[in-house]
Amino acid sequence: MAKTNGGKARPARQISQLDLTEFDADRLETGRDYDAVAFTDRDFTGQDAADVRFLECRLERCCVEGLSMRRARVIDCVFSEVHGASVDFADSIWRDSRMTGGRLGAMTVAGAAWTRVRLSGVKLGFLNLAGARLEDVEFDGCEIGSLDVGSAKLRSVAFVDCTVQELNVAEATLSNVDLSGAKLRTLVGIEYLRGAIVSHEQLLDLAPQFAAQLGVEVREDRPASAEGRRRARMSGRAQPSDRGFGPSNSILTRGASRIDCVRR
């Protein structure tokens, strides 16, 4: 998924998995290499599979409740309809892989590296990507309760038709991160949004937070009094020469009606 205009990422390349060997054991082994293996309808509840290496594997309808795959390497793999209350992929490496469907209560991927990874139609209560590195990653049609990318580095990441109840970008570094396709409810760390792309509607929703971050007090418009309206009408009858303001001297014609905010 190389970078494209507008922060979008190309769809993940097609993963060929025609000749897979069905997994016939009961448990995953720590540090084991699994090459072209299909894991179907397996229960990996509470297992420790740290440092495993998955190459061209497929996990389908597997229970990963309490599964630990810390420091795992996941290359050219497909996770389909996996489910569980929690799974630990901390410090893992994912490349050219995708996850489709399924529901996970909490998915810990802190400190991980994702390259050309796509999540499609996944429901996640909590996705912890704190301190992770993401490049060419796409979330498509996902429902995420809380997404933490604090202190992470995101490059060419896109959200398409997603719902994110809470997004934490505190201390994160963003580059070409397209949030315009996500419905955001709460944003933490708005001062670290530099490098993100938002829609006009999102910008309006975020305006109060931007104002608070800049220390700007926003007051509601007050209806003009009768005396104020009378003075305004009288002022409108005056000629420009009477008040010393000609068209060339007007503050609006000098372009001051536009405010450009540049983060320094």
Number of helix segments?
A: 3
Instruction: Give the topology string: H per helix, E per strand.
Output: EEEEEEEEEEEEEEEEEEEEHHH
Number of strands: 20
Main pleated sheet: 13 strands, parallel
Give the helix level as a range of percent.
10-25%
Global structural class: mainly beta
Rounded radius of gyration (Å): 26 Å
Distance between the termini: 31 Å
Low-confidence stretches: 1-6, 241-264
Mean pLDDT: 86
- Which term fits the overall shape? elongated
- Proportion in β-strands: 35-45%
Question: Which tags fit this structure?
Answer:
single chain, 3 helices, 13-stranded parallel β-sheet, 264 residues, disordered C terminus, disordered N terminus, mainly beta, 7-stranded parallel β-sheet, 12% helix
Describe the structure in your own words.
- With 264 residues, this protein is mainly beta.
- The protein has a domain at 64-214.
- Helices cover 12% and strands 38% of the residues.
- It has helices at 200-214, 226-237, 240-243, and strands at residues 21-22, 33-35, 37-40, 53-55, 58-60, 67-68, 73-75, 78-80, 83-88, 93-100, 103-108, 113-120, 123-128, 133-140, 143-148, 153-160, 162-168, 173-178, 182-188, 196-197.
- The strands form two sheets. Strands 1, 2, 3, 4, 5, 7, 8, 10, 12, 14, 16, 18 and 20 form a 13-stranded parallel sheet that branches. The chain has a seven-stranded parallel sheet with strand order 6-9-11-13-15-17-19, with no helix packed on it.
- The longest helix is centred in the C-terminal third of the chain and has 15 residues, at 200-214.
- The protein starts with 20 loop residues before the first strand and ends in a 21-residue tail after the last helix.
- The model is unreliable at 1-6 and 241-264 (pLDDT under 50).
